[in-house]
Structures are given as structure tokens and as C-alpha cells.
Amino acid sequence: MEKFKTALFWSGGKDAAMALHEFLQSEKHSVDYLVCTFHRSTSRLSMHGVRPEIIKKQVDLIGLPLYEMWVEGEGNKAYESAFQSTLTALKSKGITHIAFGDIFLEDLKAYRDDFLANNNLKAVYPLWKKDTTQLVQQFTANGFEAIIVCASNHYFDEDILYTPISNAFMHSLPSKVDPCGENGEFHTLCVNAPFFASKLVVKTNGVTFKALPLSVEKNEPKLGFFYGDLLL
User: Fold this and answer.
1) Residues pairing with 101 in the sheet
2) How does pLDDT run across 54-106, given as a tens digit for each residue?
3) CA 131 to centroid of chain Cα atoms
4) Which domains does the chain have, with CATH numbers?
5) Backbone torsions φ then ψ of 164, nearest 5 degrees
6) What is the number of other CB atoms lying within 10 angstroms of the CB of residue 230?
7) Which among 19, 87, 186, 214 is least buried, having the fewest CB atoms inside 10 angstroms?
8) How far is the C-alpha of 138 from the C-alpha of 184, rounded, in Å?
9) Alpha carbons within 13 A on the beta-carbon side of 85
10) How many CA atoms lie within 13 A of 1 on its CB side?
């Protein structure tokens, strides 16, 4: 049976890696492209803040083609413009399905489903509704390795950055933090996986903090994210 030509949106993190792992064993889907979202204003990977050269090296170790989606401005309109251009380009390459590593964010899934349907594309979510505690356990048991590269200061101090994902890490999390960080509490970079040609070797290059553009009371701390900078 011919497999559905699929492009997987690739964040470089553990959830994307687990989604790819599912697809590589699938009898229904082939993964023809990994799609990465970068912001032109920061020259970094969206959300995770990772440098493009890190992601390119990671994808090279996987051995799949990379499609770069560059968002040229700020806000939802800029994102949707880039998203639309990317989907049009992928369709021209024969792609029929777009995959994401989302687990339980219903609003995000509905948004993506509608956007893809308007482009006559189908969305696929290989991790959808899976237990996030079990996902972390499977991640470590199957030989994957990942480190924290971004974390919310609402839950963490900056020293959480570069911490490896492990069962011990999961059990140390505050009670309100999802084990996979599915609500945006933290983001990761996968540095090893069964489908990597070799381990991704990176060097740490300090920590930055970026506040969210939210109004807060005078004496309240600003909410934002700590980012770890990585180099090859």
C-alpha cells in the first residue's frame, strides 16, 4: 500500500521526536519533510529559541529533508501568511498530510484542523490524548535524550536550563506542571534518538530572559521565559 506523503512540523524537542518515532514505524504515512518555524526578527526557532544551525545539524543527523518556514513579522497575520505559503509549497511537492506533536491542546488542534482543511490537507496527531507521564517514561526507556532549553519563570528558576529529561526530572516537577510541558511550561531540544546517526553535541552559551508583553502591578515580577543559548 502506498503511504500518505506527510510533512511533520519539527520543533527539535522531545514531543516532535516522539511523533517522528511513531511515523517511522507507520504503515500508513511516510515522513517526507520536517518543517521548522523560524522568526526573522530573532533568527531563532519559534518558542524554543534555538539557533537555526543547531536545528539544521539535528535534522542532518536524522537524514530527512528540512523545509524552513520563516515568519517575517509579528502577530498572527504574519504567522498565517508564512503558514499559508508553506502549505502551498508542500502541496506542490505532493504532500497530502501535515503532522504535529500536540498532545491535548484542543483549541490549537481545532485551529490547525480548520486551516489545513481550507487547503485540502489533512492533519495528523500521532501523540494525541496520550498520557504525558507515560510518554516521558517511554521517551527515556527508548533511548531518547533531551535537555531543557526554555522555561517559564512562573514555575522555574534559570538553573533548570540544560537539565536532561528523565524520570527523576519528571517526578521533581511542580504539581501544576505537565510532565511534557504541554501547556508551554518548558521546551526541550532532543540531542539523541534511535533514528539519529549520532548524538547531537552542543555547547552551552549562557542564559537570557525575555519578559512577556503583559501589564503587571508595580511590585509584581514580570512573567516571561528563560532561554538557554546553544552552539555547535
Assistant:
1) none
2) 999 999 999 999 999 999 988 899 999 999 999 999 999 999 999 999 999 99
3) 18
4) 4-124 (3.40.50.620), 132-231 (no CATH)
5) -70, 145
6) 22
7) 214
8) 21
9) 13
10) 7
SS (H, E, C) 128-163: CCCCHHHHHHHHHHCCCEEEEEEEECCCCCHHHCCC
Is the pLDDT reported for residue 219 higher than 70?
no
Q: What is the pLDDT of residues 155-164, one digit of tens each?
A: 999 999 999 9
Instruction: Please tell me the predicted confidence (pLDDT) of residue 215.
Output: 57
Q: How far apart, in Å, are the Cα atoms of 135 and each of 18, 169, 198?
A: 8, 13, 23
Whether the full predicted model's pTM is greater than 0.85, yes or no, is: yes
Number of Cβ within a 10 Å radius of residue 86: 21
Average pLDDT over all residues of the chain: 95
CA 91/CA 98 separation, integer angstroms: 10
The crossing angle, in degrees rounded to 10, of helices 132-141 and 14-24 is 70
